[in-house]
Amino acid sequence: GGLLLSVIEPTAYPERLQPALFAAQICDYPVLLASEVNQYLGELIVLLDLTGKPGAIIGDLDVTQFTKGTNLENWKKFKSVDEFRASLVEYKQEVKSGEFKAWVDHSFDVKGVGSVALGVVKSWEMSVHDKLKVFPSKEKMIEVRSIQMHDADVKIAKAGDRFGIALKGVDAKELERGSVLAKNAFPTHSQIKVRLRATKYLKEPIKAGEVLHACVGLQFIVCKIGCDVGASEEEQ
Questions:
Q1: How many Å apart are CA 151 and CA 44, to the nearest integer?
Q2: What is the pTM of this model?
Q3: DSSP code at position 207
Q4: What is the mean pLDDT of the chain?
């Protein structure tokens, strides 16, 4: 029906958790294929509940007992992929306003073109010849030489669009996965204080000093818990 969508599949999951985290973070509309009850279904329900996003569940499996009390409880349900695909003509992408921000997930050099970055626009829009800043670097300023979407040249990429952009003023190796592109400056920090909320599925408290991994956007880092976090509790 003329609708263009990008589908992101965490192909390396379940061998590695990171791809599932990145796919859940970068997408606007998660889709869970529920074919059998196993540890991976449970893991994905916990992960997708934390995103708070609307989504869909595909399959004959009744997962009501597992999704009750989670964000997935209100997700749309479909018996087959074909049924879900037919529903996509009604999909309306949420318009995200505010300041421009994009996430980079791949970067590389192309002979005759220069540095190329692949990613997704998270808010507002970017145009050819826009001057952008790369974060967490505060000094790097780059220019968008061209934009491609679905192998076609375009002038503008808007919120929700997956893009490929040729860039001037930066080497591909300077754009790591998780780099953020923006038009205006915003603060960056080497340390942040956050409030943690334990998922209802947590059975044993997390003790102060335990080493975990923090995933923010497409940035994935090792961190250490500074206080005890109990099941269903919220701690500073």
A1: 31
A2: 0.86
A3: P
A4: 90
Nearest to 35 by CA among 89, 100, 80, 90: 80
Q: Taking Cα atoms as reference points, which of 59, 87, 86, 62 lies closest to residue 73?
A: 62
Residue keyed to tokens 């970055």 = 117
pLDDT tens digit sequence for 139-172: 789 999 999 999 999 999 999 899 999 999 999 9
| Alpha-carbon separation of residue 44 from 17, 49, 80, 99 (angstroms) | 10, 8, 19, 31
Query: CA distances (Å), 110 to each of 114, 129, 163, in order?
Result: 5, 19, 16
**What's the DSSP call for residue 206?**
B
Q: Which of 36, 72, 35 is nearest to 52 (CA)?
A: 72
For residue range 108-142, list pLDDT tens digits in order: 999 999 999 999 999 999 999 999 999 988 678 99
Nearest-Å Rg of the Cα atoms of the chain is 20
State the residue for tokens 């991994």.
213
Rounded (5°) CA angle 201-50-194: 100
Helix (H) or strand (E) holding 24: helix 18-26
Dihedral (CA of 25, 229, 70, 61) sign: positive
| Biggest CA pair distance of the chain | 55
236 — pLDDT class (breaks 50, 70, 90): very low
d(CA 209, CA 228): 8
